[in-house]
C-alpha cells in the first residue's frame, strides 16, 4: 500500500501542513508565488514548515547530491560525463526557471532568470535547447539527460507546443521561446538526449527540490 504524503504550504491562501494533495492544491491554486512541497511523513513536514521554504529547498538539494544510483553497478548507472537539465515552476502558469548540472560532479553549469507565467513543460524544453546552445558555444559535446518526455518531443519537432497565450507580462518568456525554436531550426547537433530514469536513479541532479 502506498504511504500518504504530507504537504507544506509556506505561502498560499492558508499556510501549514496538509494531509492530502487536494487540500494543499486549494491553498496554492491561483495564488501568485505559492511556495509548497511534499514530504513522506507528518514529522518531516512539520519540521520543514518550521524551518522555512528556503532552508527546506537547500536540504532537498543537498540530499539530491548523493543519488541512489551511485551504489549501483557501473553498467546500470547514468553516464557520468553528461549534463542533467530540469525546470521548476511555482504555479501553472507561474514563476519558472531552469538549470543545468554536470552529472558526475554535481557542478552547476547554468541557471536561467525567473520568468513570469511559464510552465514546467516550457522550462524543460528551454533547458534542453539552452544546454545544446551552451555546449555548441563552448565547443563541447556531452549527452543530455531530461526527465520530461514532452520536452524531448518538442525539441525533436523544433516547436514549443505550449497552450499558454502570449501577453505583456510573459512576453520576455516568449522571446526566449522564439529564440529556442529559431536555434533548433538553424543549428544541427549530434548530442544525444536521454530520458532520466527517475524510478531507478532518483531525482535528476538538476532538480530544484521543490516537489
Apparent shape: globular
Taking all Cα atoms into account, the compactness measure Rg is: 18 Å
Beta strands, count = 9
Structural class: alpha+beta
Order of helices and strands: EEHEHHEEEEHEHHEH
Tell me which oligomeric state these chains represent. Answer: single chain
Please report which band the strand proportion falls in: under 5%, 5-15%, 15-25%, 25-35%, 35-45% or over 45%.
Answer: 15-25%
Question: CA-to-CA gap between the ends?
Answer: 21 Å
Q: How many DSSP helices?
A: 7
Low-confidence residue ranges = none
Describe the largest sheet: 6 strands, mixed
Please bin the fraction of helical residues.
Answer: 25-40%
Mean pLDDT: 89
What layout of secondary structure does this protein have?
Elements: E1 6-11, E2 16-18, H1 21-28, E3 35-39, H2 42-51, H3 53-64, E4 83-91, E5 94-102, E6 108-111, E7 115-118, H4 120-137, E8 144-146, H5 149-157, H6 171-186, E9 193-195, H7 198-201
Parallel strand pairs: 4-8, 8-9
Antiparallel strand pairs: 1-2, 1-3, 4-5, 5-6, 5-7
Helix pairs in contact: 4-5, 4-6
Describe this structure in words.
This protein is an alpha+beta fold and 211 residues long. Helix content is 36%, strand content 22%. The strands form 2 sheets. Strands 4, 5, 6, 7, 8 and 9 form a 6-stranded mixed beta sheet that branches. Strand 4 and strand 5 (94-102) form a beta hairpin. 32% of the residues are buried.
Amino acid at each position: 500500500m502506498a504511504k500518504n504524503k504530507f504537504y507544506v504550504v509556506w505561502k498560499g491562501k492558508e499556510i501549514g501542513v496538509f494531509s492530502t494533495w487536494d487540500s494543499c492544491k486549494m491553498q496554492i491554486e491561483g495564488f501568485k508565488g505559492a511556495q509548497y512541497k511534499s514530504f513522506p511523513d507528518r514529522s518531516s513536514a512539520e519540521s520543514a514548515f518550521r524551518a522555512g521554504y528556503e532552508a527546506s529547498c537547500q536540504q532537498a538539494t543537498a540530499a539530491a547530491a548523493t543519488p541512489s544510483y551511485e551504489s549501483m553497478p557501473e553498467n546500470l548507472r547514468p553516464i557520468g560525463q553528461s549534463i542533467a537539465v530540469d525546470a521548476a515552476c511555482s504555479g501553472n502558469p507561474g514563476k519558472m526557471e531552469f538549470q543545468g548540472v554536470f552529472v558526475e560532479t554535481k557542478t552547476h553549469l547554468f541557471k536561467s532568470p525567473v520568468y513570469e507565467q511559464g510552465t514546467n513543460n516550457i522550462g524543460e524544453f528551454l533547458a534542453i535547447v539552452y544546454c545544446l546552445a551552451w555546449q555548441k558555444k563552448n565547443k563541447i559535446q556531452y549527452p543530455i539527460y531530461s526527465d520530461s518526455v514532452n520536452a524531448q518531443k518538442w525539441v525533436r519537432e523544433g516547436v514549443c507546443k505550449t497552450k499558454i497565450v502570449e501577453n505583456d507580462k510573459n512576453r520576455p518568456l516568449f522571446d526566449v521561446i522564439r529564440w529556442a525554436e529559431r536555434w533548433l531550426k538553424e543549428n544541427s547537433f549530434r548530442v544525444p538526449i536521454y530520458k532520466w530514469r527517475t524510478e531507478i536513479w532518483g531525482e535528476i541532479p538538476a532538480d530544484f527540490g521543490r516537489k
